[in-house]
Design brief:
Elements: H1 20-30, E1 43-47, H2 59-77, E2 81-85, E3 87-88, H3 92-105, H4 110-113, H5 115-129, H6 132-140, E4 150-151, H7 155-170, E5 174-184, E6 189-191, E7 196-211, E8 219-224, E9 235-238, E10 252-254, E11 261-266, E12 278-281, H8 287-296, H9 322-335, E13 344-353, E14 361-370, H10 373-384, E15 389-391, H11 396-404, E16 409-410, E17 412-413, E18 423-425, E19 431-433, E20 445-446, E21 450-451, H12 453-457, H13 460-463, H14 472-477, E22 480-486, H15 490-505, E23 521-527, E24 530-532, H16 548-555, H17 557-566, E25 574-576, H18 578-600, H19 616-637, H20 641-670, H21 675-693, H22 698-709, H23 729-751, E26 760-765, H24 769-772, H25 775-781, E27 784-786, E28 795-798, E29 807-811, H26 818-843, H27 846-851, H28 854-882
Length: 884
């Protein structure tokens, strides 16, 4: 038996802010989160999706981190050697933008400093100001191994990047080509699809005429929202079966501003039902037009410079900003009489840069690309073959749609902060890729571009453990056990990790000592987005965002964590509001108060007596504990965090606190010699309950568990397992019946206006022998005293139970202020009659019934039925009161 700390070792009340920081730093100092690759324990590993070095904790992070911490804490308690590896992403565009703004404020620029000095400035910013989120992770309680903290630009990861680039390049999977990209004129770089946010924009749809102004001569009408791009038109396309344009296909039409003719081509892509059935083709500035340009070998002139100004057209529009040119081109066409319809507003979706906010310009640009067909197939096959399992399975079709239809990946960025592309150009036109252990010849120049941030983060699961070297960490923890992330980045980060992981896992010199390391993770758990309490997506513009640090300050980290975990299921979005956080805080307070009360009443932990030596209430709560622990295990194993948390919440609040603590008081008062056994049962239940809750609510459970058990820390305590004892159906049935009986008697007492603490005489009959043992609990919890000689039955409560239908005859004579109760019942009756009259009238109105939705009619019908029942009940009650 373990003697707990004195109850007064606990504070008077639970105030998270007074304890969380010291508890966390104590865990870190004790090395509880340190992973040991030499351990004989089975390995379990998660690599933290690296947050941007510029970032701070938002609700999406808080959810991610809570779920990962819950999984790793539980596995650690289950006896696994757990690695939860932290780190940060260098966030190329975001970080460079911040430092450039700081330089501008100092009156200088990166161009004035030069590349090498600028990169040093970025590193300086990173060391001084980057990594805010790491301090916030500590406040949340993240049990990561801080000794292994990695950064996507650190020396080891830079070596991994150069190594895989070299392998891919030598394998013919990296090439340079002029293709269409998302171009940011403000940042002057290509950006990835995930950094493009589409917004509805009020634009202009302009229809104008190509060709002759004479209706009897060849001409054709097209429409566009981007008038300036017509300066780059190299064809007009129609559908091959569109008879309106059969005679024009194969002919050429003059361009209004350029000394060149525009061919009319036929292509199945064109929708003959849309607009005029003819579309202008600008291959260098539109993705669909680019594909058509390839099919028809069209010229692809780029008509804008890197800043979005018109360039190289030889027209008066050169030098104009694209938006100025949009207006001027339209005005010039109007002067020629070519505008065939009045300009009208047109709402359409336009891609904008997530970082700089301006509209993206599709632009033909010479960039470096990864050839993805072979890589994407391997990533798809890994899921098809079951090497990696996606949770929930319903996300698999989206995964296959994405990887099976993936386009080549633009990996170059026109930035200075990032992994510089390891390609060198010789003085005689030589092009060579040099690996991390190779040196370019003197006089050769390195490519100025850097790699897309997603390239280095795509190596994260294995580069952080030492690849391309063969390391003990890879042997122990690779492939990683599970990736936890939102379904919204399934196609960007997850796909890239799977492509690179399956690629290096099949290389002869991969450096993996572990067998079957052909995928980066065995499981992918995809959770949903965190939404506000009304189900709306959180955003700054709506003002409905929630700062998780604010919730930690106000409610505690445990409350934030439990709120998020309680709503988390595979693939489902989570709606949270302040009321949820308050509820979770109240739950932490309830646990604290219940445990403190138990300690004040001698609760201890130790070996339990045989089950047949325990009371029916003891056997019931221990049986329910076993069931709940089994439910919690199945929930966590299936990544159904909501199921596990709901089971723990309702067991703790509804069964332990609301019922067993009260039952324990009764049996101790009834038989003081049993107090020791009751304390042992209560201690056992709280011990296992606190351990099961600790992965989600580590702070309050640590404080309570140590006070209860005297143990070192709940972090390193064993995971609670069901006892293995057979489930006691008889005890469960008896207590469930008791609960129904007590609840009905309490309801009757409330209806009669009896004070909750007021005892009344009663005669209980019809109990089975199995239920008879609960009589002391019934009399105590329902505030009943045995009937005496002067007992006068005034009412009877009859309750249908699973095993019998007992009756409780009650004597309320002299217990109730009849006149006061009559006035209250009369007032309630008047309100019920008013509700009944109103709802009956509505349901009798044929016009209302004809127009109202079914749900509304059903709701009013339910209100009518409830009012009818209340009128009957209160009428009977008044009749009874009048008879007294």
């Amino acid at each position: 038996m373990t003697t707990p700390d004195a109850p007064n070792a606990l504070p008077a009340a639970w105030n998270p802010a007074e304890h969380e920081e010291s508890l966390y730093e104590g865990w870190v100092s004790a090395g509880y989160f340190d992973a040991d690759e030499t351990s004989d324990k089975p390995g379990y590993s998660i690599v933290l999706p690296p947050p941007n070095v510029t970032g701070s904790l938002h609700m999406g992070h808080a959810l991610d981190h809570t779920l990962m911490d819950t999984l790793t804490r539980r596995k650690r308690m289950q006896g696994f050697e757990v690695l939860w590896l932290p780190g940060m992403d260098h966030a190329g565009i975001a970080t460079q933008t911040i430092v450039e703004k700081q330089l501008a404020a100092r009156g200088t620029s990166k161009e004035e400093l030069g590349r090498d000095v600028f990169v040093k400035e970025v590193w300086k910013w990173k060391e001084e100001s980057g990594g805010t989120i790491q301090g916030q992770m500590r406040r949340l309680g993240d049990g990561v191994d801080w000794r292994r903290d990695r950064f996507t630009m650190d020396e080891g990861l830079s070596r991994a990047v150069a190594s895989i680039f070299k392998k891919l390049y030598d394998d013919g999977l990296i090439y340079r080509a002029e293709r269409l990209v998302n171009w940011s004129p403000v940042l002057q770089t290509a950006i990835s699809d995930i950094e493009v946010k589409f917004e509805e924009v009020e634009g202009e749809l302009v229809s104008f005429r190509y060709g002759s102004m004479n209706d009897d001569e060849p001409h054709i009408v097209v429409a566009t929202t981007r008038m300036e791009t017509m300066l780059g038109d190299t064809a007009i396309a129609v559908h091959p079966d569109d008879e309106r344009y059969t005679a024009l296909v194969g002919t050429e039409i003059d361009h209004p501003f350029l000394d060149r003719k525009i061919p009319v081509i036929a292509d199945d892509y064109v929708d003959p039902e849309f607009g005029t059935g003819a579309v202008k083709i600008t291959p260098a500035h539109d993705p669909n037009d680019f594909e058509m340009g390839l099919r028809h070998s069209l010229p692809m002139p780029t008509i804008m410079d890197k800043t979005g100004r018109i360039e190289g057209t030889g027209t008066r529009f050169d030098g104009m900003d694209r938006f100025e040119a949009r207006v001027k081109v339209r005005e010039a066409l109007a002067e020629q009489g070519r505008i065939v319809k009045e300009v009208r507003p047109y709402l359409h979706s336009v891609g904008h840069s997530e970082r700089s906010g301006e509209s993206i310009e599709p632009r033909l640009s010479l960039q470096w690309w990864v050839k993805v067909d072979r890589l994407a197939k391997a990533a798809g096959d890994a899921v098809r073959d079951g090497e990696t399992v996606i949770h929930p399975k319903s996300q698999e079709p989206r995964w296959f749609d994405w990887v099976d239809g993936m386009h080549d990946w633009c990996i170059s960025r026109q930035l200075w902060w990032g992994h510089r592309i390891p390609i060198w150009y010789g003085p005689n036109g030589e092009v060579e890729c040099f690996g991390p252990d190779e040196t370019a010849p003197v006089g050769w120049e390195q490519d100025p571009d850097v790699l897309d941030t997603w390239f280095s983060s795509g190596l994260w699961p294995f580069s952080t453990m030492g690849w391309p070297d063969s390391t003990a960490a890879l042997e122990k923890w690779y492939p990683t056990s599970v990736l936890v992330t939102g379904y919204d980045i399934l196609f960007f980060w997850v796909a890239r990790m799977m492509m690179f992981g399956t690629y290096v896992g099949r290389l002869d010199d991969a450096g993996f000592a572990a067998k079957n390391a052909t995928v980066p993770f065995e499981n992918v758990f995809l959770h949903g987005l965190v939404r506000d309490e009304h189900g709306s997506k959180m955003s700054k513009s709506k003002g409905n965002g929630i700062d998780p640090l604010d919730w930690i300050d106000r409610f505690g980290a445990d409350a934030l964590r439990f709120t998020l975990a309680r709503g988390a299921n595979p693939g489902s979005d989570i709606s949270v509001g302040e009321s949820h956080a308050q509820s979770s805080r109240n739950f932490a307070t309830k646990l604290f108060n219940a445990t403190k009360f138990a300690l004040m009443n001698g609760a201890v932990t130790g070996e339990l007596p045989p089950r047949d030596a325990l009371t029916v209430a003891d056997r019931w709560i221990l049986g329910r504990l076993d069931q709940v622990l089994a439910d919690v295990d199945s929930g966590f194993e299936a990544y159904e965090f909501s199921k596990a948390c709901e089971a723990l919440y309702h067991f703790a609040w509804d069964e332990v606190c609301d019922w067993y603590l009260e039952l324990a008081k009764v049996q101790n008062a009834e038989s003081p010699e049993r107090a020791g056994t009751t304390a042992l049962v209560l201690g056992t239940v709280l011990d296992k309950l606190l351990r099961a809750l600790s992965p989600v609510m580590p702070f309050v459970t640590e404080t309570l568990w140590k006070a209860l058990t005297g143990g070192e820390s709940v972090v390193v305590a064993p995971w609670p397992e069901p006892s293995g004892e057979p489930f006691d159906d008889a005890a469960a049935t008896a207590i469930e019946d008791l609960q129904k009986l007590v609840t009905e008697v309490r309801r009757f007492r409330s209806d009669q206006g009896l004070n909750p603490g007021q005892r009344v005489a009663a005669r209980v009959g019809g109990l089975t022998p199995e239920l008879e043992v609960t009589r002391p609990y019934l009399e105590s919890l329902a505030r009943l005293t045995p009937a005496g000689e002067d007992f006068a039955e005034t009412a009877t409560v009859e309750v249908r139970l699973s095993s019998c239908t007992p009756t409780v005859a009650i004597d309320t004579s002299g217990q109730v202020d009849v006149e006061a109760e009559r006035k209250r019942a009369a007032k309630d009756l008047a309100a019920a009659e008013k509700e009944l009259a109103g709802t009956t009238a509505k349901l009798g109105n044929e016009q209302f019934l004809a127009k109202a939705p079914e749900a509304v009619v059903a709701k009013i019908t339910a209100r009518r039925d409830l009012a009818e029942a209340e009128v009957a009940r209160l009428t009977a009650k008044l009749a009874e009161l009048d008879a007294r």
